[in-house]
Amino acid sequence: MSGPRGYAWSRARLVPASASGRPAGTAAGPRVILAATPPAGGPPGGQDHAAAGERPLRVVTTRHPGRWVAALGVAVLLAMAVSALVTNPAWEWEVVGEFLFAPSVLRSVVFTLELTALGIVFGFLLGTVLALMRLSGNPLLNSVAWGYIALFRSVPLILQLLFWYNLALLYPRLSFGVPFGPAFFDVGTMDLIGPVTAAALGLALHQAAYAAEIVRAGLLSVDHGQREAAAALGIPRSRQLFRIVLPQAMRSIVPTAGNEIIGLVKGTSVVYIMALPELFYQVQVIYNRNGRVIALLLVATIWYLVMTSVMSIAQHYVERYYGKGRA
Questions:
Q1: How far is Cα 24 from Cα 242, in angstroms, rounded to an integer?
Q2: pTM above the 0.85 mark?
């Protein structure tokens, strides 16, 4: 910034109020005094910095030796890891390349994504209903939602899958009709709930317990004044939820929901106990035939890494979309 007669402001110092010449009656406290540094040609009258009693400013870069030492150590460790992966023939990278895009492996990847989509869609739909029940003033609805969440979060996923897979042992046939009254028709449980249906049902019901708490926390993060303002304007409650509250709650819901989706991608590997051809089960079938255990496990690792990385990128853009306007 230029000062009078070509001077540049180069320094600021605090001067006590008593020495600043402040008029009587003004508020006490320090004020900023800017010292002017003359231009390159020297101050008027031939007076230099030394004669003026000022020392020129010098920029000193802050040094961080610890950062460089840490970066060097990390670089050495990374180089060692890459060397171990590339030079060790036991990794069998040629076998990895052979089976990475094998038709059976690609079909298992698609099936894994389908199971994830079913679990997430129906899980979050049911979870949203449970979250609204938890926020309800009705004690019965609140208690039922709380009991569901407590039960399904306490039982391991693998047990839930086995339960739904063997439901026919408890109820060989399922009847549909008037509650506590006559049945209109019934079907065999094994015909209605096959292995794929049991897997999707188990994943969705398990995910709903976690989705309910995620959605409830997001709804509670919205200021209650938003609802009061909407109610004062006469906006219906359903419109308040879907047009005012939920879009704001998505800022809190999306990050945690993204983590749950990524976790469910890996969690689908549990359905191997039902002999469903998802990714982990398929690579097991292949390495049981050819004995290339490490190479096939690397194939599964690479595909899981690709799927979760794509979902992480998508989560980033969704978060940025709902984060618009946040200070």
A1: 60
A2: no
pLDDT digits (tens, 9 = 90+) for 56-106: 777 878 888 889 999 999 999 999 999 988 888 888 899 999 999 999 999
Alpha helices in 48-156 (DSSP H): 49-52, 65-87, 93-99, 103-134, 139-154
pLDDT of 125 above 90: yes
Provide the CB-side half-sphere exposure for 262 (13 A, CA).
18
Q: Is the pLDDT of residue 13 over 50?
A: no
Q: Residue 62 carries which side chain, given as an amino acid letter?
A: T
**Integer Cα distance of 324 and 322 in angstroms:** 6
The residue type at 154: S
Q: What angle do CA 197, 199, 203 make, to 5 degrees?
A: 115
How does DSSP assign 116-135, residue by residue?
HHHHHHHHHHHHHHHHHHHT
264/282 Cα distance (integer angstroms)? 18
What is the Cα Rg of the chain in Å?
33
Residues 270, 207 contacting (CB under 8 angstroms): no
Q: Which helix (H) or strand (E) holds 228?
A: helix 224-232
**Residue 18, SS3?**
helix
Continuous segment of H or E residues that includes residue 197:
helix 195-220
Q: What percent of the chain has pLDDT above 90? A: 48
For residues 141-167, average pLDDT: 93
Q: HSE, CB side, 13 Å, CA atoms: give it for residue 310.
A: 7
